[in-house]
């Protein structure tokens, strides 16, 4: 009959059509993109996971646990200064002595905090400011995250010579940014700096301008920078340097 559906025609509503043709399709693209991004670095991320506190405690708990020959191999490729066999050997030694080192470090921190409290008495010191004191203690606290605390632990106990590869591994781990926000901000700065009036800017000058704009927290000695700029040209030398 006219207007009736045949048996081989599917009656798909709008919501189902949206899910199948748009929503699920978008999810597949996102998953595939993430898979492509992390596929090449999966081995490195696996090696870095061995440096977490959970894996170190697991290695100490499981005495029979042995590292395979492939573990830390991607990390050694990323950091050529690391000796792979030495790192694999010292990793188990470090895992066995980790809790003892941590307890020693914690006792030292408690002792130092008690000395600070004894040295400054809020009732006796008229200039004592609780907010300022707590802020300064936080600023001087070197333990920020597990990786940085491991660096502090190895350096404070003089263990960099005993575990040089562990120190390099944690040092490399601390250089990995938590996100790509800083890089994206740099690209945003590029659009502002390289405008239509600066299309002929050379690459070296452009990189320097982006560095000055993006890394404003880096302290610069203006006197030294002025001297370097003045020595680059005779004209600038006459104008900037005292005769």
From TrEMBL:
<dbReference type="InterPro" id="IPR052958">
    <property type="entry name" value="IFN-induced_PKR_regulator"/>
</dbReference>
<dbReference type="InterPro" id="IPR008906">
    <property type="entry name" value="HATC_C_dom"/>
</dbReference>
<protein>
    <recommendedName>
        <fullName>HAT C-terminal dimerisation domain-containing protein</fullName>
    </recommendedName>
</protein>
<dbReference type="GO" id="GO:0046983">
    <property type="term" value="F:protein dimerization activity"/>
</dbReference>
<feature type="domain" description="HAT C-terminal dimerisation">
    <location>
        <begin position="161"/>
        <end position="212"/>
    </location>
</feature>
<feature type="region of interest" description="Disordered">
    <location>
        <begin position="118"/>
        <end position="140"/>
    </location>
</feature>
<dbReference type="Pfam" id="PF05699">
    <property type="entry name" value="Dimer_Tnp_hAT"/>
</dbReference>
